[in-house]
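Open question from group meeting: does this chain pack into something compact, or does most of it stay loose? Before anyone orders reagents, we agreed to write out a predicted structure and look at it together. Recording both the input and the output here so the notebook holds the full record.
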Amino acid sequence: MATAVTRFKPFTRPDDPKITSLDAQAVACKGHWVITSPNVDFVPEPHIFEEEDLQPRADGRFGLVDCFQWPQLHDKDFEYSVCIPRKDSLPSLDIAWYTPTLEDFIIPTGAKFAVGTLRDTTVKQFEQLYQFLRSRHHPLQNRPIGKEVLRHRIAAARHEITRLRHHPLVFRDLVAFVAQLQRTLLDIHALLDYVEILYPLLASPPSKPVRANPTWMGCFTRNTEVCEALYFAGVPVWLVRDEEFISPTMNIVRPVRLTFPDNIVRVMYSERGVSKPFPSIFRGPGGLLRHYHTRRRYEGTLAERPEPVAPPSAAQSSSSQQPSRGGKQATQKQNRAARVKASAGPSRMPPLQKSTGGEAKWEEPVLPDIPKPHTLFDSAWRKAEKSMQRVQTGRVDPGYRFPKPTLFVNVSTPERKKTYLFNWLSARPLWISQVSVRSPSKFPSPQMWRDFLNTIDTDQPSSTRSASTKSAVRDILGENIIHVAQGYAGAPEEIEWRGMQVRVSSLSDPPLWLIRSILWELYELNFRYELYALDEVIVPHLWTTDEARVARQGLLYSIFPGGYGLLMWSEPLPQEPRELGLCASSMEIALPYWNSFFELLSVWPEAPPGLQHPAELDGSSGNSAFFEQAMSASLFYIQTAFDFLGRQPSLPRLFQFV
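Structure tokens returned:
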């Protein structure tokens, strides 16, 4: 097949050597297409004509059809994509092209399966780039374009960094989520360049072309007007035309062969030589839909059982210096003291004593193990109307997203408590990963959670009623979770929880601070995810698009400390009042979290009118106006939650500092 080198020769028009947008600094051919650039001296191989699969490769990126790796077809809705930085063009963005390895994958001590997080030093590099981009955004946030999309992208990047730092993932998902974060950060960088540099040049074109920016990705286009506008603005651009439309007097500086990529991964993902490709998310030619789907959120894949972690050898068990697979991340400074505390006992009352707080339908036992509920939410629950005729069944699954905390105190023997706690702490990383990445459509009832915590046999169940219930648990939780929670026979001496090493032998009578903290976490997680589920059902129109979802999630996350997610996994327990959110004893600290809560509820049908405006501390004794608004919000939320769940909703609990 003829190439541009054989078809074309350098040519200069007599008395007119100027290169216009229709001339060629470089020219190359692809079939009957002639591709010219007025401002760069190479022509990349085009992947814009044919229908191709948009499918993550082994590095989580989309290969040659990825606008974050290779020039794509210009689209007006994603015009800023031309400003995406080229790989390795800016040293300050090195982390945006990094690919994780197993050495970066940190699996907690005592884990049965290869579920972990990204190495903290790498997460910090992403955090530094994120902060740099935020500092660039600050002086540009009042520019007339890009406000909303930048706000959404910045919020998404913050959430994705939090996920990599705190949320347990299998390595395959980790690779995909790292690539997604990198695309988001590169998108923000491109948007900032577009707002600050390119858009002003497009809005007020210069009198002569600006030198092409060598760090920008550029684009292909079939539109001569677009080509001229981008040429004058300094964007690397390649004009695609049928050879019949090429003028015989076109100025040609350099006929070239197509440039083929040599640093883009094309092979599919595999583990231990077994191919495990990511799914294709779109098939089509270059253009709007390819740009759109490249930015779609990855949902994760949890259908396959994660790899089991090999138990340590005797030599490994005796050495505190031997890392787990991928190297063990340094634990928090509190771990030595926490290890001592976690192994100390006894904690409180005789181990066989059962709850004396009553087992009425709407009551929970009153025990030292159980953290006290927030006064306003507790009062709201007592005042709520509990008629089952109010309940709107079928709209929100009434199951518990996480085990009902009282299951851990209503046990008959210390050994059963040990089994419950060990099974939950073993399954916790994998279950949190599932809820975080792709939440199940149904959740277990308290009895189902009890069956799970008590250990479900992995053999084929019998036909008894009990076996039928356990089979239903298996269907909801999945085989992976069932296989993790198989009791403490052959268990390691220690298991990791929130960065602390907990001795398994202490779980039959755990220290009061430990059991209370574990239950506090479960109450908090259930409250957060019930609020999330209710909001999606009650105001579904605010969750319909990616942009709307990011905005709504951002508001939801701002109700809780950190402001960028719902889950808690490896971060230390709260150390100071500002980490308690709605439950902070200081009104000044709690106020912004309550105002976010008011704002979220304010668009729910029949919300109290007082929630439309943020509360302020009026300085009066007790700040009565704030408390009136907070009580109104608590009553409204608790009653609404009951009306959808048909049971007592999870109430925020007070945390007692360790």
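Observations to bring back to the group:
The two ends are 75 Å apart (CA to CA).
Confidence is low (pLDDT under 50) at residues 312-359.
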